[in-house]
Design brief:
This protein is flat. It contains 11 helices and 106 strands. The N and C termini lie far apart (111 Å).
Length: 1635
């Protein structure tokens, strides 16, 4: 009550002082300045107007509302523009008028209402909006608030919950400037000037303030006058102090997952904040990979900013389709406990009255920026809720991509919505009534968690140190350096670990050369932690835990040692120990391995996990060695191999999806699943690969040589076998220094195990009737003296050996039989115990005996089959099959089983690709997959790396090429298969590294090997592993030794990447491009997807098929010919096509396809209008993106591709399909975007009447709006071909302005400073092999040539004229410009296609390096660079008035007709001849010539760009195999002297060479003339008719003929509609053929 009395008393005083007529006043803009005026009650029709003058860019003009319900008017200045924000019951609306109005001049603003329409007028410029509402009255006289000008009173601002409809108006900056002539118009329509009721910080017009004389404010602070001199407002800048002279400290806060900031205007009945432009800026520091950072929204509108997997993800939805932008750079994570700054910027640009274009930009640290765009019927983002750092249930926030709140520190969080600026942490600290704090928040940055966790994702992952002493790292899978543990007398180690897997080596450090077996190790066995310590006088093994620690929780391990005594503590449990012997010093050297031991590292026999190859899989953090913290994350960042990541989570693998195939048993691990394939005929991470099966005939064997004596306390052995023999040796070990052995054999159909350690034997039996020719599985496990033996799925037999010995010594392992050439000097006698009464009475009982047991007989060799042989982490048979032959000797025979295909994926376009996580091949490479295709070339796999490192697999001329670089030089390996592999059959590819310097490529059963020289031994990859190709923009940046310029088109399956089997089409794949499908739909012999190029539709017919090219922008039998093209010049022009009067079609479905090249950012491509309604379709370019806007009578529906720019000067094809209100649009081969409007929609386009191409012209104007400039080709609309009609001069189509017909498409539009290249993604070639017309010298529109000659001379074709009378002329069809590709290192003659395959390259002179042996051998292992450029060649075109009687086609000697456009020697140019044509290329050539007659006078044919006069022979353009750049088209003039066209000169040029060429040309020309004369004479003699008539009166007119391009070097026998041959005016008999 006290506050109310004060308010009324102050108001009465203010009314008494200010209730007078004021013509103008000055608002100082201080934090408390305002002017209050009477209530405005406009009713349904009223207005409010005023004038203002200011130099400030933003500020609140006035505000009024209905007293706290939902209606309000807010007028403000935003960056020099006037913005009206209002709500009359139909939802908030925004109107913006003017620009640069803060110019210090007077401007007039008027807000007027007319029922449902509200209009904003500024200086005579108006904008209006209509809003439907039940009542068009604005509030009521009793409830409406006062009109506040310049700001709101402080008392009103504090009572936002009860008094204001729009609470955020209190956050608007106050207006600083002059206001005058505030006039209301009410219900009666009479304008009335208003008097001020109350004010603060207001001065009369004409009074100069203190700031005019002296402005003390610094750094952008706002000066305002007061009774005590000038003061400074620093609230809008990042400075403080009396004069804003000190930089304000950044506001910080710590969030622990339970605290967050929020506001919700809905709870106080307030209207949401609305803005067209938003910007969020914040800095964060965290160790957690996921969490909510910021959220704002209202209803379906929202912006959600979150961390996910260490990256920043922003999701935006403004009532349409959500837009997601992710910033997650390769090898960079933002959960590294470092400060990172995120900036999110959103802008909206209005396309028309109903459609807007929104751009979202996300930047992290100013280094990593990603953008996204979307379009739709929106104009503003509404926001009634704000959350910072989380919510009660973060998963329920709209657009949520994480379920956790943010954990870490936030600093300087600022959100700007138009003119509203929110410093959220400062507002929370100062207690702003709008903002609430959940939880206890510390307004400073505190460390939430100590130590960076590291997750070991595979059992081969480990951290190791540098090579030193006797330790040699031969094949480590992940090398991360940790120094040796320096603890000779005393030392300590502590860390935290977390896992759900029971076994793994945690740490290992070996001793120095001079030590007596010193070592230190920690391992995890069966869920318990064990310490191993040896000071040189004996090893001590200590069990450190009493309960299992593989429970998924964090456990802390601490080890302290002082001389021989020590203590190891795990969590709360401590165990003291003492080392044996008299040694007190621990002498360690080399590296401290963390997480495992590298392959080839010699570990002690008592370290079981190291001997069995079991690495640790789990998380580790807070490693402290001798009191010094060792940052594992820092080591992982510097030496990461892809197997060790810098975050900890258990996601990534689950048995719930049944990933194990063929009845494999799934077991859940830490972030992975483990498939047990021991009871199946398959191996691999998902049991999806046929197990290698060996057949033994009694004289065959497999021998594994260790190289040196091995000592072990643990073995894991498993395999499968089948036989019909009751006896046979399965496995035995031999040693050169000991009598120890481990032997498995069959005896009487039972499995017998004999283990001899020292001088005592242990014999065990398992199974019965195992010689039934069925597959049986065997599993043997030994841990010191405990042995477990199991057959099939029977319960295991567990027993212990006799005696004190527990170490098995061996050197060789023999499978099937003991070979005669064994390397051991002593061979144990493989024997059976003679039958005895004891044994027969207990056949399954174990027996123990001494080594001198009586009655022993030799064990016969095994006859049968074995598979899936596993021993201590290695599948021996798989290693032998893939070429790991260093330690394996195999004489047994591999058998072939049925081919197994799993997880197939189809790449249906050469531009399709899949991005998988980085290939983990740092120290070892094991890649397996299957493929089938009909295409001879394509990139199958690529992973880039650091520096020069990379790995690529590609298909080149039907053969697999493996290309990689370990950092020193590239190595290339080619398969040595005898036939090409693009035969549409499945082929198996295996890539492996048997040793650090040896690499094998096995395709099917053929192995090719390469050895790289000295240098790096590790493949340091980074980024995505791409399958099927790479994104189009990456091909130009691939290593030059990768030959592929397009992707793989075909099927891939059964992927195995170093023990991981991802599904390339699965839901967890990071990136899947368009045209990638699960399954394998291979091409057939009938109508198939490759029959028609460029996306044409194959139509199956009875005995053949045809191609529908309507949606391709191409033409021809296979949709591979260029269509009619027109150039729209800078002078602007338009084409108009009008349907006949009264025959306007109604369309429920529209199909549109068009190809174009342009560099415009904004243009109308075409527009189709209705004759009697507002229905229309408009294809347009906005900001370089393509959009189609269509309206069937209800509302505008925009649809477009905002991810692909089309104004790059390259050729693009747009396909648009509308069915009713629904529509799809696609650019080239990229993603198909769809539009499915909701609500009631009309579906018929009524009375289609007028099509405009190249621009838009309104009905009342003659100017062309947004004209298109560029090239347009192949336009098809609902079956009509308007460009073809224009070329045929159809009267229904009018061409106006700068529009010209092109006779061929350029490779791209030239741009200054940019090298244009042909876009290879627009054309998909047809099936490989010869196409119609390929290899022909002349292509005719009639019958075949009838030539049957083997030489290269021309022949005169003989035609069956039949009854026709048309004059058939040959047509020249040159090749289309091929995609830019780099030549191979050396020139070679390509293989010849034979039935879809290629013949082997038998002639070594024609083969490139490595084609015969499967290996590229170069000097020093370095591949030569074959780059070279060509020089200019001058080619003259003589002028003649006589048309050619016959074309002279002379093929160059270097290029056979069937080998045109292939890989030729770099730098080779076109070939010149001495014929009339004076030029031929390496491709098929022919020419069109008119009948023999003088050129006609008065011909209306004019030479234009790229066209030729009819009287001149048209020169054939040169064809290059490799193009470097494109030369712009220019106007061509034809002088009467010979025209000289300069081309690249040859490498060798001399007068002698010119003379020889001249002589050869003269001789060749003479021979051709003689042959033609002979053929003509023979032809005249063979005619039965004696009289011939030549009609000289025929007149031909048409478009000058120009060569038709071929796609990818493949020609077609038919002539496309775009090529205009002479058209006859009359029809008369012609009895003579002219060639």
């Amino acid at each position: 009550m006290g506050g109310t009395s004060v308010w009324f008393g102050w108001l009465a005083l203010a009314l008494a002082m200010t209730c007078r007529s004021i013509s103008g006043f000055l608002l100082e803009g201080s934090p408390s300045s305002f002017a209050q005026f009477p209530r405005w009650v406009p009713g349904a029709n009223g207005s409010l107007e005023f004038e203002f003058l200011t130099q400030e860019p933003s500020g609140l003009f006035l505000y009024t509302d209905d007293g706290g319900s939902y209606e309000f008017f807010e007028v403000k200045l935003i960056e020099g523009s006037v913005r009206l924000h209002y709500n009359l019951g139909g939802g908030a609306r925004l109107l913006t008028v003017g620009r640069g109005l803060n110019d210090g001049r007077w401007h007039r603003v008027k807000v007027s209402r007319r029922h449902d329409k509200t209009q904003l007028t500024v200086d005579g410029v108006s904008e209006f909006r209509s809003a439907k509402a039940l009542d068009h009255e604005f509030g009521s006289p009793a409830s409406n608030s006062f009109v506040y000008v310049g700001g709101l009173p402080e008392l009103v601002s504090r009572q936002v919950g009860a008094r204001l409809t729009l609470p955020v108006v209190t956050l608007e900056p106050r207006f600083a400037g002059q206001i005058r002539q505030l006039v209301y118009t009410g219900v009666d329509g009479i304008p009335r000037t208003q008097d001020m009721v109350a004010s603060q910080g207001v001065w009369m017009e004409g009074r100069h303030g203190d700031c005019d004389q002296h402005d003390p404010c610094m750094n952008g602070g706002r000066c305002y006058s007061s009774g005590h001199g000038p003061l400074c407002d620093c609230s809008l800048v990042n400075y403080e102090g009396p004069n804003c002279e000190k930089e304000r400290p950044s506001e910080e806060a710590t969030f622990r997952g339970r605290e967050y900031l929020w506001w919700d205007l809905r709870r106080i009945g307030g209207q949401p904040l609305a803005s067209q432009h938003d910007q969020l800026s914040l800095s964060f520091k965290t160790r957690h990979p996921a969490g909510v950072l910021f959220f704002t929204g209202h209803g379906k509108d929202y912006v959600n900013v979150a961390l996910r997997e260490g990256g920043v993800l922003v999701t935006l939805d403004m009532g349409g389709d959500p837009l997601k932008v992710t910033v997650r750079p390769d090898k960079v994570r933002f959960d590294d406990n470092q400060w990172h700054t995120v900036t999110v910027h959103r802008t909206v640009k209005e396309i028309n009255g109903h459609t807007s274009f929104c751009t979202l930009s996300v930047s992290v640290d100013g280094l990593y920026t990603e953008k996204g765009t979307t379009a739709g019927p929106f104009s503003q983002l509404s926001s009634s809720r704000i959350h910072l750092a989380g919510a009660d249930v973060p998963a329920l926030l709209p657009g949520a991509e994480t379920r956790s709140n943010f954990v870490g520190c936030l600093r300087k969080v600022e959100y700007r919505a138009d003119s509203v600026r929110l410093d959220l942490i400062r507002m929370a600290r100062e207690g702003n009534p709008l903002l609430h704090v959940s939880g206890k928040l510390d307004f400073m940055c505190l460390e939430v968690e100590a130590g960076d966790p590291v997750s070991f994702t595979t059992q081969e992952s480990y951290l190791d140190g540098p090579e030193n002493g006797v330790v040699k790292f031969t094949r480590p899978d992940a090398v991360l350096v940790l120094p040796s543990w320096e603890a000779p007398r005393q030392g300590s180690i502590s860390f935290k670990m977390r896992t759900t897997e029971a076994n793994g080596l945690l740490m290992f450090n070996s001793g120095s050369v001079s030590s007596q077996g010193d070592f230190f190790a920690l391992e995890l066995l069966e869920g318990h932690i064990y310490l191993h310590l040896n000071l040189g006088s004996g090893s001590r093994k200590v069990k450190a835990t009493n309960r299992r620690v593989d429970d998924g929780w964090w456990h802390e391990v601490t080890l302290n040692r002082d001389s021989q005594a020590g203590r190891i503590t795990v969590d709360e449990g401590a165990n003291d120990f003492t080392t044996p012997g008299d040694s007190h010093q621990l002498d360690l050297d080399g590296a401290l391995y963390v997480g495992g031991a590298g392959n080839g590292i010699n570990v002690p026999p008592e370290l079981w996990s190291g001997r069995l190859g079991l690495g640790y899989v789990g998380c580790m953090r807070d490693l402290v060695i001798n009191g010094q913290a060792a940052d594992l994350a820092s080591y992982a960042k510097k030496q990461d191999s892809g197997s060790i990541v810098r975050f900890c989570h258990s996601d990534g693998g689950s048995c719930s999806s049944s990933p194990c195939l063929h009845s494999g048993e799934c077991k859940a691990g830490w972030g992975r699943f483990i498939c047990d394939c021991s009871h199946t005929s398959y191996v691999g991470p998902t049991c999806g690969k046929n197990a290698a099966t060996l057949h033994f005939d009694g004289s065959q064997y497999v021998r594994v040589t260790a190289g040196e004596e091995s000592s072990t306390q643990a073995e894991d052995i498993a395999f499968r076998f089948r036989t019909n023999r009751p006896v046979g040796l399965l496995l035995t070990t031999t040693s050169g220094v000991s009598s120890d052995k481990l032997e498995l054999a069959l005896q009487s159909g039972r499995l017998r195990l004999t283990v001899k350690l020292g001088d005592r034997d242990k014999v065990m039996y398992a199974g019965n009737g195992l010689n039934d020719q069925q597959w049986h599985s065997v599993k043997l496990t030994r841990r010191a003296t405990q042995i477990s033996l199991q057959t099939d799925k029977d319960p295991p037999t567990i027993e212990h050996t006799m005696g004190r010995h527990s170490i098995l010594e061996y050197r060789d392992i023999h499978i099937g039989m003991v070979s005669s050439n064994t390397s051991t000097s002593w061979r144990p006698s493989s024997t059976f115990l003679a039958p005895s009464s004891t044994l027969s009475s207990t056949p399954l009982a174990s027996s123990a005996s001494s080594s001198s047991s009586p009655s022993q007989v030799p064990v016969p060799a095994f006859i049968g089959e074995m598979q899936s042989f596993y021993m201590n982490g290695n599948y021996l048979f798989e290693m032998a099959r893939s070429g790991h032959v260093d330690r394996l000797e195999v004489t047994a025979t591999f058998t072939k089983g049925p081919q197994v295909i799993h997880h197939p994926v189809t790449f249906k376009s050469k531009s399709a690709f899949v991005a998988l996580p980085q290939l983990k091949a740092y120290a070892s490479t094991n890649i397996y997959f299957q493929f089938k295709t009909l295409e001879p070339t394509g990139l199958i796999m690529y992973n880039g790396g650091k520096g020069h490192d990379f790995l690529a697999l590609e298909l080149v001329n039907g053969h697999i090429h493996l290309v990689f670089n370990l950092g020193s030089h590239p190595v290339k390996v080619r398969d040595n298969n005898k036939v090409a592999l693009n035969d549409n059959k499945w082929h198996v590819v295996t890539v492996s590294r048997p040793s650090p310097r040896q690499h094998t490529l096995m395709v099917d059963d053929n192995i090719a090997t390469a050895t790289n020289g000295a240098g790096d031994e590790n493949l340091d990859l980074q980024g995505f592993l791409y399958l099927g190709g790479v994104p189009p923009e990456m091909y130009t940046s691939l290593p030059r030794h990768v030959m592929s310029k397009t992707g793989f088109e075909g099927c891939l399956a059964s992927l195995d990447l170093n023990g991981e089997a991802p599904d390339p089409a699965g839901k967890d794949v990071p990136i899947i491009s368009n045209r990638v499908f699960a399954g394998c739909d291979g091409p057939s012999t009938k109508c198939h997807r490759n029959a028609c190029a460029n996306g044409g539709t194959c139509v199956q017919q009875w005995n053949s098929y045809s191609c529908n090219c309507d949606m391709t922008s191409y033409t021809g039998p296979t949709c591979s010919d260029e269509s009619t093209a027109y150039e729209f010049g800078r002078g602007t022009g338009v084409m108009s096509f009008k349907y006949p009067q009264g025959r306007w079609p109604d369309s429920r479905r529209d199909l549109l396809a068009v190809g174009f090249m342009t560099q415009q950012e904004d243009a109308v491509v075409l527009r189709l209008d209705s004759a009697n309604s507002n229905d229309y379709m408009e294809l347009e370019i906005v900001d370089g993106n393509i959009f189609m806007v269509y309206n069937m009578g209800t509302e505008d529906h925009p649809i477009g591709d905002v991810t692909t720019k089309v104004n790059d000067g390259l050729y693009h094809v747009v396909r648009f399909i509308r069915t009713g209100p629904n529509a799809t649009i696609q650019i080239d081969d990229y993603k198909v975007f769809s539009k499915n409007p909701s609500g009631h929609q009309l579906s018929v386009f009524n009375a289609q009447s007028h099509l405009q191409i190249g621009g838009r012209r309104s009905r009342r104007s003659t100017d062309i709006e947004r004209p298109f400039m560029g090239i347009m080709s192949g336009l098809v609309l609902n079956g009509e071909h308007p460009l073809d009609l224009a070329a045929e001069r159809d009267p229904r189509l009018e061409v106006e302005g700068d529009v010209h017909l092109l006779l061929r498409l350029p490779r791209g539009l030239p741009s200054e400073g940019r090298q244009t290249e042909f876009n290879p993604w627009q054309r998909t070639p047809p099936l490989p092999g010869p196409s119609p017309g390929e290899g022909d010298d002349l292509v005719f529109s009639g019958a075949g040539s009838g030539c049957d000659m083997d030489d290269e001379d021309e022949c005169i074709p003989v035609f069956d004229t039949g009854s026709g009378d048309d004059l058939i002329t040959p047509v020249y069809i040159p090749p289309t410009l091929p995609p830019i590709s780099k030549p191979p290192p050396h020139a070679f003659i390509p293989d010849v296609d034979v039935g879809g395959s290629r013949q082997p390259c038998d002639d070594e002179e024609d083969c490139y390096i490595g084609s015969g042996s499967g290996e590229f051998n170069t000097d020093g292992g370095v591949m030569p660079d074959g780059d070279s450029g060509g020089d200019d060649i001058e080619v003259e075109f003589p002028v003649t008035n006589h048309p050619m009687l016959a074309p002279d086609v002379i093929h160059s000697e270097e290029h056979e007709p069937t080998h045109y456009n292939k890989n030729k020697d770099p730098g080779s140019g076109p070939t010149t001849t001495g014929s009339t044509l004076a030029f031929t290329s390496s491709s098929t050539t022919s020419t069109t010539a008119p009948p023999t007659r003088p050129p006609m006078k008065g011909s209306n044919t004019k030479p234009t760009a790229t066209s030729y006069p009819p009287s001149l022979p048209q020169p054939s353009p040169p064809t290059y195999d490799y193009y470097d750049e494109y030369t712009d088209f220019t106007e061509v003039e034809f002088p009467k002297k010979p025209t000289v066209i300069k081309e690249d000169p040859p490498d060798l040029h001399s007068e002698a060479a010119g003379g020889v060429a001249l002589i050869i040309s003269i001789i060749a020309g003479a021979l051709i003339i003689i042959i033609l004369i002979i053929l003509l004479v023979l032809k005249f003699k063979g005619r039965q008719d004696g009289n011939y008539k030549v009609d000289q009166t025929k007149n031909y007119e048409g478009i000058p003929t120009m060569p038709t391009p071929m796609i990818n070097g493949q020609g077609n026998g038919n002539i496309k509609p775009g090529d205009r041959r002479p058209v006859k005016k009359q029809s008369k008999d012609v009895k003579e053929w002219y060639v």
